[in-house]
């Protein structure tokens, strides 16, 4: 495939104005009525929903690269599982970062304390999402943006984008396009992982705990998981609690079981706890430590959470590092190909060379801290200023990454309160592949790829988080 900077749209654009307006109104209603929705951040009410931003028609994505990402996911699951269980690697890799990044330091302290007391539960549940952009400078081959090991979101509502956009394409008399849209089993795949972990815990009276933020804007995404589990297994009860509530009402039983009131917790599914704002005081950190000590199966366990840091991602891309975690030479080669340039900024010869390189050609790079949740990165020409404000020691909390240049496509981005009729905009898409893995240090009990999501943003926007209000939900239209 030659180096293309654009991908052809799924259908000829523009859509005639009258038809476009009529269709947009229908599609918005479809989204709200089927739960492709979120609570408004600007006009919050627990009693109402807005549709989540979405693309009216699916965005093109290279078929070969989509299939490659799907095939790679079980290998990436296993890689992250092995990384999470390698104490020496995590300790060495994060040594400089934890000196200057207080949040990662706090997580690491819990990890060390749990290690010294012995894990209450050897088994972990990993619900991961590996994010990719196609890179025009590499024949549109996928390059990994990041790997999420905590609160990997949008498995719940992204499954509605295929039927929503299928409805739109049928309305436009293009039913043949549906053949190039892959099915998406993200919700069932993720929930089946939680149900399997609940079964492994082996207490029919135990509950699943969803650890949540104080205010959940992305409520449908979380509730769909809960409602699916309740529908499939009516005997499994689910509680939603914040870190503060776990501190208040939680305690460890005689055998280290986590008790919330009268309920024993079998599985903890973290949808919070990945950023400093979720920990208001020492109490929330104490609650995290108590959960980590317990016999509940965590998603993720503290070591899995640390394995998802950007510093670990950068270390894995170093020459020869994958051999430590993967035995098969073909798998090593395949994973190595998805890595883009990742560079350390630690205060040593290598880190100082990275620093000089970033000052000279900042437009080639993205500067990334150890944070999840979107909106934390520094791009291009803003990098020199950001770096100059840091001390040499502070720099080690960040990594530098080559900027991936994805192919541009065009479409209609539908947002709450957006223009009518919506304008055609230039967009780029990021593919997320979900994976589920359950196991302990010696055994992997199950490992599979579990669906996908597509986030699409304006080609001029740096960040693309839907929950952060910058991207829109989408689904891939596969092109050769």
Give the topology, please:
Layout: H1 17-34, E1 37-38, E2 50-51, E3 54-55, E4 59-62, H2 63-84, H3 87-94, H4 97-100, H5 102-117, E5 124-135, E6 141-148, H6 161-171, H7 186-201, E7 207-211, H8 219-232, E8 238-241, H9 243-249, E9 250-252, E10 258-260, E11 263-270, H10 282-293, E12 297-299, H11 302-307, H12 310-316, H13 329-338, E13 342-344, H14 349-360, E14 365-368, E15 378-379, H15 383-388, H16 392-395, E16 399-402, E17 409-414, E18 424-439, E19 444-458, E20 472-474, E21 476-479
Helix pairs in contact: 1-6, 5-10, 7-8, 9-10
Describe the 3D structure.
The chain has 480 residues and is α+β, with helices and mostly antiparallel strands. The protein is built from 16 helices and 21 strands. It has helices at residues 17-34, 63-84, 87-94, 97-100, 102-117, 161-171, 186-201, 219-232, 243-249, 282-293, 302-307, 310-316, 329-338, 349-360, 383-388, 392-395; strands at 37-38, 50-51, 54-55, 59-62, 124-135, 141-148, 207-211, 238-241, 250-252, 258-260, 263-270, 297-299, 342-344, 365-368, 378-379, 399-402, 409-414, 424-439, 444-458, 472-474, 476-479. Strands 3, 5, 6, 17, 18, 19 and 20 form a seven-stranded antiparallel sheet that branches. Strands 7, 8, 9, 10, 11 and 12 form a six-stranded mixed sheet that branches. A four-stranded antiparallel sheet has the order 13-16-14-15, sandwiched between helices. Helix 8 links the parallel strand 7 and strand 8 (238-241). Helix 9 crosses helix 10 (282-293). The model has no long low-confidence stretch (mean pLDDT 95). Belongs to the eukaryotic GSH synthase family.
């Amino acid at each position: 495939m030659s180096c293309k900077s654009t991908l052809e749209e799924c259908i000829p654009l523009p859509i005639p104005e009258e038809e476009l307006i009529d269709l947009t109104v229908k599609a918005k209603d479809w989204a709200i009525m089927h739960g492709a929705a979120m609570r408004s951040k600007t006009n919050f009410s627990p009693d109402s929903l807005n549709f989540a931003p979405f693309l009216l028609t699916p965005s093109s994505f290279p078929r070969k690269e989509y299939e490659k990402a799907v095939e790679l996911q079980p290998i990436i699951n296993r890689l992250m599982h092995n990384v999470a269980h390698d104490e020496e690697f995590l300790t060495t890799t994060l040594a400089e970062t934890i000196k200057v990044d207080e949040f990662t330091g706090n997580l690491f302290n819990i990890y060390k304390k749990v290690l010294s007391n012995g894990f209450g539960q050897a088994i972990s549940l990993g619900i991961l999402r590996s994010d990719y952009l196609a890179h025009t400078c590499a024949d549109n081959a996928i390059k990994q943006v990041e790997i999420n090991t905590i609160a990997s979101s949008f498995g719940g509502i992204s499954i509605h984008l295929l039927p929503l956009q299928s409805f739109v394409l049928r309305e436009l008399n293009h039913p043949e396009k549906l053949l190039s849209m892959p099915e998406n089993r993200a919700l069932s795949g993720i929930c089946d992982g939680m149900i399997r972990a609940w079964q492994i815990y082996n207490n029919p009276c135990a509950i699943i705990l969803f650890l949540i933020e104080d205010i959940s804007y992305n409520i449908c995404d979380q509730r769909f998981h809960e409602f699916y589990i309740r529908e499939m297994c009516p005997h499994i009860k689910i509680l939603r609690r914040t870190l503060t509530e776990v501190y208040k009402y939680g305690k460890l039983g005689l055998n280290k079981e986590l008790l919330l009131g009268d309920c024993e917790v079998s599985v903890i599914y973290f949808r919070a706890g990945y950023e400093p704002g979720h920990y208001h005081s020492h109490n929330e950190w104490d609650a995290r430590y108590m959960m980590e000590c317990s016999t509940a199966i965590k998603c993720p366990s503290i070591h899995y959470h640390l394995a998802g840091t950007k510093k670990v991602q950068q270390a894995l891309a170093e020459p020869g590092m994958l051999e430590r975690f993967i035995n098969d030479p073909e798998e090593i080669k395949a994973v190595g190909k998805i890595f883009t340039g990742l560079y350390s900024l630690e205060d040593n010869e290598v880190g100082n060379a990275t620093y000089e390189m970033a000052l000279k050609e900042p437009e080639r790079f993205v500067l990334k801290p150890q944070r999840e949740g979107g909106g934390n990165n520094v791009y291009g020409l803003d990098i020199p200023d950001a770096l100059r404000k840091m001390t040499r020691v502070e720099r080690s909390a960040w990594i530098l990454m080559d900027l991936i240049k994805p192919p541009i496509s065009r479409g209609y981005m539908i947002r709450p309160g957006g223009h009518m009729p919506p304008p055609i905009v230039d967009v780029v898409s990021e593919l997320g592949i979900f994976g589920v893995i359950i196991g302990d240090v010696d055994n992997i009990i199950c490992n599979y790829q579990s669906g996908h999501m597509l986030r699409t943003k304006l080609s001029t926007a740096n960040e693309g988080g839907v929950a952060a209000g910058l991207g829109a939900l989408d689904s891939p239209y596969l092109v050769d």
